Amino acid sequence: MKRTLLGTVALFALAALPASAADMAPKMVTKAPAAVVWDWTGWYVGAYAGIGVNRSRVSNSTGDIDFVNHGFAGGGTVGYNWQFAKHWVVGIEGDIGYFGLGRSFADFNEDLTVNQQTSWLATLRGRFGYTSSPNLSYITGGAAWVHTKDSLVSSTGAGSNSETKTGWTIGTGTETMLGGGWTAKAETLYVDAGQGSPISDGLFFTYQADHKYYTQRFGVNYLFGGKPPASALPQYNWSGFYVGLVGGTAIAQARVSDFAGTTSSAGEFGNNGTGYHAGGIVGWNWQFAPTWVAGVEGDFSWMGIDHTINQYNDTPSVYTLKTNWMATARGRLAYSTGPALLYITGGGAWVNVTESAGIFSTTPVPTKSTLSGYTVGGGIETTLAGGWASRTEYLFVDVGNGPGVCDSAATYCVQAYHQFHLFRGTLTYKFGG
Questions:
Q1: SS (H, E, C) 305-338
Q2: pTM over 0.90
Q3: Per-domain residue ranges for the chain?
C-alpha cells in the first residue's frame, strides 16, 4: 500500500510540473511513418495460361453457319510500366502464344463438313490502370494477329485457306503483387480479326467466315526495377459474409441436331448468341489458415442472349435461343496474398431458356425450360477500401441437352446441347471480420 501511494504521488507531481519546465526539456520530434508506395515502374516478363473461345459465323443469301469452339491458350509476355502519379500507371505490353482452338462438324442436312482452327495469337497493346496498395486494375487495347485455317469438304471437292489475320483487341484486367518482384494477373481480351478469305469446294459451296475471339488469361509476371517496398504485403481478414453485384458478357455455345429422328437429317448446326448478364451475389468466406480461404457463394442474374440462326442452305429453317436467367451455387478455394485472393470455383448451375425451331418452313413454337448442370472457373479478387472488393472471373457453364423443340405440327424436332462462357466482374461488400 505504501508503494502504491508513493507511486500515485509521484505521478501527480510529474503532471503538476510547470510548463516552463516542460519547455526546458529537450524536444523529441517524431515523424509519422511514410506511406508505403508500391512502385509499378519498370520492365517485366511473364507467362500466362487460360482459355480461348472462337465465335464464328458464315452468312450469305442462303443462310448462316454459326459455331463456337474453345481450347487452351498459353504463352509469354513482355512489357513496360510507368507509374506517373501515385495512383496511375500507363504501359505497353506484347505477347505471343499458342491458341489451340479447333472444331470440325458436318453441317445439318448438307453434304458439307466445315473445319476452323487457330494455332497462335499475338497482341501489342497499351495499358492504363489505377493502383491502390499493391493492386492494379487496368484497361488495355491495341493490335492483334491470329493465325487461322478454314476448310470445307463436300462430295464435289474441298477447299482451304491458311493465313495470318490482323485485327484489334480490347480488354480489362487485374494484377496484384505477390512479393519479391512477382505479380499475378487475370485478364479478359476480345479479339476481332475480321473475315477470312473466301473458300470453296470448287463447285457449289463457297463461304467466308468471321473470326472473333474471347480469351481469359491467368498469368504471373516478374517486374524488374520498380519493385515493391521491403515491408510485407498488407494483411486482410477475408472471413465473413458478403453481398454484391455481378455482371459481364455471356456467350452461348449451343449445338443443335435432329431429335428422335424426326427430320431424318444428319449433322448439326449451332447458335453462338452473345449478351450481357447482371445480377446479385451473396457468399461467405472462412480464412482457415494465414494464406488459405474457403467459401461458398451463390448468384442469380438476368442473362440477355437472344439469337436466331437461319440454317445455311435450308432457308427458312430457323432456330432461336433466348436465355432469361441464370443461377449458380459454388464453392471456392483461394490462396490469399493479403490484399488479393487467387481462387478456383465450381458447383451447380441453372439456366432458364426459351427455344423455338421451324424446320423446312414450318412454324416455330417457343418452349421454355430450366436446365441444370455444372460450372467451373476461377479468378482474382482484390481489396478496395472499407470492406469493398472487386474481382475478374471466368466461368464455364454446361447445362446439357434441352428437352427438344418442335414445329407447330410436331413433325420436325431438334435438340440443343447448351454450354455458356461467362466473362464477368463483381463488386462486393464484406461485413465484419
A1: CEEEEEECCCCCCEEEEEEEEEEEEEEEEEEECC
A2: no
A3: 42-233, 235-433
